[in-house]
């Protein structure tokens, strides 16, 4: 494995002193625009990333900032962000947010946090590879929230997705349903665990599983509704957004929920609680997850990484 490039390597590539490279990356006066451009170009070529922890250790003051990357397209991420604020405040920290959007990828969102003097990062459901997360943790203490992943040096806080999926299916079975479908979450964090647990629970009950391609959005749920056969009487959707899309699409076709089709989501996101929806769901308990993530994010750098797994709960509402 090649060693990580150092500030000295960047200085040699750019043909300047190490002190000048430090000035450029700290964004303080003392370097011309041409020199700054040359240093950044050399750093990009080498794949250099400043060690923000070293900067903090060399500083007299701590920032007490936690950087949070989240995806604006997922309602549950909003609930997690809302829960992270009081959790951080109770520990004497503030949050710096960076959003993943349809036009702004995860890499850009994380890089913007690295440009701040955050003491650690909390990434909500990141899609980066384990290798990329490991490399990130070498430069900055990192907590992955709401995704099962094995990456060296990375703390993980997540819900037991398999247990949550089992709760959903067992709830539908207890209501007498035997033709139960699962609308899948494709490659989203937690999708594989929820899908596998659904299949296993159905087979243990002596029933045939039916997995319908889906996704994380209402649009994905609406599309999945077109594949829902009339013989199916219940659906466990990957998440609440997908379930809400299913709910609206089913109503448009004249099928009643829960009279014709029982429906359960996953996340207990804010939209699921609206009076005109009242979606049965599996709660991940955002407050519990946020507290665990912030507790790990504020630990000393050299502590070994941990995985904290919280238990989900069933919240039956009108759609079942």
Description of the structure:
A six-stranded parallel β-sheet has the order 2-1-3-4-5-11, sandwiched between helices. A four-stranded parallel β-sheet has the order 7-6-8-9. A two-stranded antiparallel ribbon has the order 10-12. The longest helix has 16 residues, at 75-90. The chain is built from twelve helices and twelve strands. It is elongated, with a radius of gyration of 23 Å. β6, α9 and β7 form a beta-alpha-beta unit. With 320 residues, it is an alpha/beta fold. The chain has helices at residues 7-14, 18-25, 33-46, 52-57, 75-90, 106-114, 130-139, 161-174, 191-204, 218-225, 240-252, 286-297; strands at residues 65-71, 94-100, 120-124, 142-145, 154-159, 180-183, 210-212, 234-237, 262-264, 281-283, 307-310, 313-315. Helices cover 41% and strands 17% of the residues. The termini are far apart.
